[in-house]
Amino acid sequence: xxxxxxxxxxxxxxxxxxxxxxxxxxxxxxxxxxxxxxxxxxxxxxxxxxxxxxxxxxxxxxxxxxxxxxxxxxxxxxxxxxxxxxxxxxxxxxxxxxxxxxxxxxxxxxxxxxxxxxxxxxxxxxxxxxxxxxxxxxxxxxxxxxxxxxxxxxxxxxxxxxxxxxxxxxxxxxxxxxxxxxxxxxxxxxxxxxxxxxxxxxx
Amino acid sequence: xxxxxxxxxxxxxxxxxxxxxxxxxxxxxxxxxxxxxxxxxxxxxxxxxxxxxxxxxxxxxxxxxxxxxxxxxxxxxxxxxxxxxxxxxxxxxxxxxxxxxxxxxxxxxxxxxxxxxxxxxxxxxxxxxxxxxxxxxxxxxxxxxxxxxxxxxxxxxxxxxxxxxxxxxxxxxxxxxxxxxxxxxxxxxxxxxxxxxxxxxxxxxxxxxxxxxxxxxxxxxxxxxxxxxxxxxxxxxxxxxxxxxxxxxxxxxxxxxxxxxxxxxxxxxxxxxxxxxxxxxxxxxxxxxxxxxxxxxxxxxxxxxxxxxxxxxxxxxxxxxxxxxxxxxxxxxxxxxxxxxxxxxxxxxxxxxxxxxxxxxxxxxxxxxxxxxxxxxxxxxxxxxxxxxxxxxxxxxxxxxxxxxxxxxxxxxxxxxxxxxxxxxxxxxxxxxxxxxxxxxxxxxxxxxxxxxxxxxxxxxxxxxxxxxxxxxxxxxxxxxxxxxxxxxxxxxxxxxxxxxxxxxxxxxxxxxxxxxxxxxxxxxxxxxxxxxxxxxxxxxxxxxxxxxxxxxxxxxxxxxxxxxxxxxxxxxxxxxxxxxxxxxxxxxxxxxxxxxxxxxxxxxxxxxxxxxxxxxxxxxxxxxxxxxxxxxxxxxxxxx
Lengths: 203, 641
Known about the structure:
The structure holds 2 protein chains of 2 kinds. By secondary structure, chain A is of the alpha/beta class. Chain A is built from 8 helices and 6 strands; from the N terminus they run βαβββαβααβαααα.
């Protein structure tokens, strides 16, 4: 029996973070898990930071992941992993898309965007295991940058013993995603899975 | 095209909400409220959009036809509650929804409605926003029970929210009184499994019997009689509320005199931390009935403990009552909460804060602080660049503020020379870079009257009030009448993007359709402005920067109030309706890399290539063409296949 398992999805509005949370949570529910999801909505489509906290397990009640207790962090944008640093602990596995979504403050030269190596290094110092993936490139290969979230999901499914079954995930994708994009998203899922397999065997 | 857009929006969630008794669905708190209304056999659901309450009506709209429920967006919350009260007088069950700021708008009516009776159940759902996620005051609406005297249940999770709505309708009819259901952002937007109950079908003939003594107020004697009856109702409700499932008292046999009272979302944090640290000896009391409070349970709790932690977000509502009750009992009890500084009145609670407070209560250190890692965490958070909210790609408001700035410059006013009062909704995003143009934000419709006040005080610079279409309908008309009545020299800019955009593109009275997708009269803002006494009203398409700039220049030159309606559909809605143009492209030969476009517009579709030139993302660009009008080198042209 799972007592507590926490997945944090950190993204920029419009990247599909909330859809990813819906797929994962409905897959978990179909596997009979007790599920809680906390979301920051309202500004989701407007280029702001968006976080979804997806939680499973018997001892889970709160809508937010307790600090440092994320099992998995999906960072759909590199710097958004930094923003949620307080949720990263020693057991956190971080799947990070490496292509940035530059905020206006950076475009206007009012802020600087950290280097990817710098982001990875600081995440490593926090104790989490980081898997950087150019998910944007893979999504485009699958058919559109809009499948970025599904590439990331695929990468997760190739990790050692993910709690969710591939069957449940595929079913949840069929329910949650527009049917006309299902083929493209299935390609994205597979590309993500292959990429993570390569990363793991390479490590 | 409009029809297919609306229908697609309506079909989402339809089958989910009409699930059978016993089925389990993963619902957001607000969706659970919607399901609760269906189970309660509600006949009318009405409200005004406002984060975090909007999803109730959005979820119910697609079920309206199937279930015979009337689901509507009202022009504002006061209109919504008055319609709800009217329907309840005639025996219908009615749910009225709003955010906390909307409660203030509806409050004038609610206080008066409380003095009469309701014949059908009247339930008011209000959602507060600790931590101001949607950017308004951290208002604790529980205190509204002190002003209105009305009963209130504070919910903790989606299942609880659904159950509370169903019971609230029964309570409302049993005691002939409106009942509040209150939630907060974290509950309203939390998703968890909800088990469906049976759906009641209520068929009642509409009937309202004349009883002037109960339903009019202009007699002091009758009013005081009504006030007395209201107090009696609350007194009579006490045992029902006290014994409802929304309060839970647990005093373990082996308790050590330590207890926690929790309410709302905090109840979840408490249960989780109790499970994590196996705190089986701690006495707990969950309070769901905020008014009337379960005083017998609180007394029973006080009897058993000598140290109490109170977990409630925002203001110390329960803590205040608890302290008064402890005083009555005359027992010495230590109370940890807001007054002693254990927890803050500002922001929202989380697991970490509650765990630390519980640690203080049971004198244990639960959290191992590793300062080296804490420093790295802080360093990491600081490295993340700020993401101020931009206007969306193709947003007509970006064009409006750009043209407004051009007009002011042409009249000789530099950055900061003219005052712009902003209003609620997407139009306020002009407060962010690169515009920094909205100076103030108060409440719905306040921009116009605030501008008048600045003028009265003697400000002699140009003053422009910006306001959205839905906000104008909601509360912008009375201050416009006032400005015209006293011939006040301000410019009223109504940024009309045809929907209530910020909260999720709900229709407004100008949209031409209703919440459930039926065609409706599109109320004309320009006619309302003219009827309000504004002599010169211009209507322009903000995508045309030149014409828009000229409209502002003329309006700024006029004495007395003048108005401009800047009409262009929200670009997100346009995208969904497939009404957007071809994306624009940059000619790298002509682009000099001056970056004027980015500095002026900061459109999310723009970025800079390695050689310093601007490039437009084809998937993001909506082809509004505003950047092409800005470029001094004609380097931007509409895309050609």
